[in-house]
Amino acid sequence: MRQGLINSKLAFEDKLVRIALFGSGIPLFVSILFIIFSSFSVYLKILLVFIIFVITLFAAFAIRQQVIFQLRTSTNLVEAMSSGDYSLRANNHNVSGALSDFNQLLNRLAESLAKQSLISREKQILLTKITDQIDVAVIACDKNNNINLMNPAAEQLFKRRFDELQGWPIKSIGLQNVIAEHAKQVTEFEIAHNKRKVFVHTDSYFEEGETHRLIFITDIQHLLRDEERLAWQKLLRVLSHEINNSLTPIASISETLTQIINGHNDQHPLNADHYDNLNQGLSVITERAHSLNHFIQDYQQLTRLPMPNKAPIDLLSFTKNITVLFENTVFVLPQNTIEVFADAEQLQQVLVNLIKNAHEANVTQSSQSEIVIAWQSDKQLHKLHIDDHGGGIRNSENIFVPFYTTKKQGSGIGLTLSRQILLNHGGELTLTNLAMGDADTQQGKSRGARASIALPKPA
What we know:
Elements: H1 2-8, H2 12-36, H3 42-82, H4 98-133, E1 137-141, E2 147-150, H5 152-158, H6 162-165, E3 184-191, E4 194-207, E5 210-219, H7 221-262, H8 272-303, E6 311-314, H9 315-323, E7 331-332, E8 339-342, H10 344-363, E9 371-377, E10 381-387, H11 414-424, E11 428-433, H12 438-442, E12 449-456
Parallel strand pairs: 7-9
Antiparallel strand pairs: 1-2, 1-5, 3-4, 4-5, 6-8, 9-10, 10-12, 11-12
């Protein structure tokens, strides 16, 4: 047991020397016996035994040195590679057999690691350039939620340099409440004594087997302000237009009526014509007042839209019940049906608005009066299409602007209300022109428009 422990502690090269000495022991012993019992002189016998011992020990020592040299060479090469130096190569000249194969393998490994290291450095440089140029703030935290990376956009957002914050806890910049795993949210927090709205997206990555956190922050304050400004501009433009259309004739007619009344007294009483003018003027004032009131009620309908009460709906039978409301209109419906999950009353209002628009568009193209309704499903959405054969969409930028309309009797609320209903369902409404063929294009004709409804499938 003890002998085995001693052997196990011997160096590899010493073990090889022992094996070599043991292998040459028997021939050496036989040679010495032969010399001793030979008829040579004593001095010659001593010389021969000495020469044999010297040659044996030299051979064992040479074997040991060769093994040590090769092992240390390979060790230095592997150590250099583990330190990131891939420039060294094993000398494979005048070497053959298993050792040559081993050296070739080490050299191929060094070349492969050198190539991978170069690719990794190039990708790191590319990633650094990207993170430096994008306007999204990127912050990386370690497992203890301490900051270990910030790009220039993050430095600009928080008005702090990365070298000042490296290793500091994430709470030092007020992000301790937004580091939940895979969070996506719009939040507001204080930056440099100013509250800002930002979109925060958090994700995770692994480094040395441990989970680290990535935080992406998009400053949406200026975007919200721009959108808010554009929304107010559109709303004020529409409100001003509608209110002026009512107040201008009211003011003009009121001045006229005042002049008629002030121009008469007891000596010059009003006659029948004057009373007719008064009645007509008051009728116009009443009509415009009602129109303005109707306009305000339409606007309130947009702001007071209730949240949907969803339930399963068989789309084929549901659509057929709506199409009967439109007489003298040809509908092309699919043979199959799908089940959608929506508020029946609100979805009916959407379909009535869209089919009514398609019907009115077809009136301008009496030769093609049918309305084609189709639907399809994918993994996430149910999609319904309503195609007409009218003149198409001429001003796509304003189709969803509240109260914008190109119809003489239109209120400009239908499409806006329909889109808001679908947004409350988690869906979307889009309107596009159908593609025109070459023949239609040459004749200046349109192949109509398509209203597309997208509704999410229930989870």
